[in-house]
Amino acid sequence: MADRLDIIFAALADPTRRRILAMLLEDDMAVTDVAEPFEMSLAAVSKHLGLLSRAGLISQEKRGRVKWCKLEPDALRDASVWMQGFGQFEPVNLDAFERFLDTELPSQKDP
Amino acid sequence: MADRLDIIFAALADPTRRRILAMLLEDDMAVTDVAEPFEMSLAAVSKHLGLLSRAGLISQEKRGRVKWCKLEPDALRDASVWMQGFGQFEPVNLDAFERFLDTELPSQKDP
DNA sequence: CTGATCGTCAACCAATCGGTTGAATATGCC
DNA sequence: GGCATATTCAACCGATTGGTTGACGATCAG
């Protein structure tokens, strides 16, 4: 039986999924719109979203025929607490986070 | 080409490896001693340590015939920064971390 | 009703993972 | 030298992962 942390960290261990989370940080999105910038099938992105949902990192709500995806940042709290215990990192540094998004987001190459 | 965060989060997604990190939080250890509490072969633990080392989460230094494993908490900084950006979690909470260790460490059943 | 759009499901595939065992390589001890 | 200790390597195994494709069920528009 996989621990909750297992599932959360495994969900974060994929660049596609981290990129999806970063996208959802800006706004809720429909599945199709989430999938649009990725060079993979809709089904593949749908699987990623399912995994993120099972990890509790996002929630999905179907309205009409479109399914909206919403970031659930609280799910990261457990994992964050676990990690911070090791480093006693300085308090939240949003600038560093912005730099990370900059380096992570363009990871999808144009062909 | 796996991103650095890929490797770090993947390394954290396994309870054995998280438990190893928690053990090393207390002190540096030899490979054999790390392996002792686990119900798996030494080779398996050695593989886990290799993975943690490749992720930069630990360093290994051979002195004589014993290889010492040392926690490298700085490697968690990148991942922690990434995560904190999502939740704006409150500053480091060591008490919560201690509770986590309590719930995680006894996850290995006695036979 | 018809047709297009939204999303998932099912089956498949290659690659990776977590584990095993047995042999191999250092190194230390006497 | 010779044996024990510490650790890794190599080959193997079953399960999981990340992706594909094609069919399918809902829902909306005309």
Question: What can you see in these coordinates?
Answer:
Two copies of one chain form a homodimer. Chain A is of the alpha+beta class. Chain A has one domain (4-107): Winged helix-like DNA-binding domain superfamily/Winged helix DNA-binding domain (Arc Repressor Mutant, subunit A), CATH 1.10.10.10. Helices cover 56% and strands 13% of the residues of chain A. Chain A has six helices and three strands, in the order ααβααββαα. Chain A has helices at 4-12, 15-26, 31-35, 42-54, 76-87, 94-104; strands spanning 29-30, 58-63, 66-71. Chain A has a three-stranded antiparallel β-sheet with strand order 1-3-2. In chain A, a hairpin with a 2-residue loop joins strand 2 (58-63) and strand 3. Chain A starts with a helix and ends in a 7-residue tail after the last helix. Mean pLDDT of chain A is 82; it is low at 106-111. Chain A binds chain B through residues 3, 5-6, 9-10, 12-15, 18, 21, 25, 71, 73-74, 76-89, 91-94, 96-98, 100-101, 104, 107, and chain B through 3, 5-6, 9-10, 12-15, 18, 21, 25, 71, 73-74, 76-89, 91-94, 96-98, 100-101, 104, 107. Chain A binds a DNA duplex (30 and 30 nucleotides) through residues 10, 14, 16, 30-32, 40-44, 46-48, 50, 62, 64-67.
